[in-house]
Amino acid sequence: MLRSLGQRPVTGSDEDPRVAGLRTAVSRLRRELAALPVEFPDRAVAEDELAALAAMTVDGRPEIPRLRRSLLLIAGAIGSVSALSRGLSEVRAAVDLFGEPPRRP
Question: Which of 5, 66, 86, 96 is 20 to 30 A from 74 via CA?
């Protein structure tokens, strides 16, 4: 698990380890959600926002306010589905590594 915001990319790679961690957590939660046989009202919202998070990891520079917004939408959509709680926690931890969005003046 990544431990600090100041970690450097792995030698030979210019990818931010926070982005790699986010990609892994999002991918895992997407698989868990896809395997879940239960339908619930906001499933499409969760799937759309997970897809948006996955897309943000492609260029390697996700926008922190957008990350946080997606996390809130996902948590609201699947927060009561206990089978997804671990995956959701991992996504939250990955988003938290990016820190808080800059404050507006």
Answer: 5
38: number of Cβ within 10 Å: 8
Read off the tokens for 78.
């699947």
- Name the packing angle between helices 17-35 and 43-56 (round to 10°): 150
In whole angstroms, what is the distance from residue 26 CA to residue 56 CA? 11
The percent of the chain in helix, strand and coil, each rounded to the nearest 5, is 60, 0, 40
101: left (phi over 0), alpha (psi -120 to 50) or beta: beta
Pairwise CA distance, residues 26 & 94, whole Å = 9
Q: Model's pTM, two decimal places?
A: 0.81
Secondary structure element (H or E) that encloses residue 31, with its range: helix 17-35
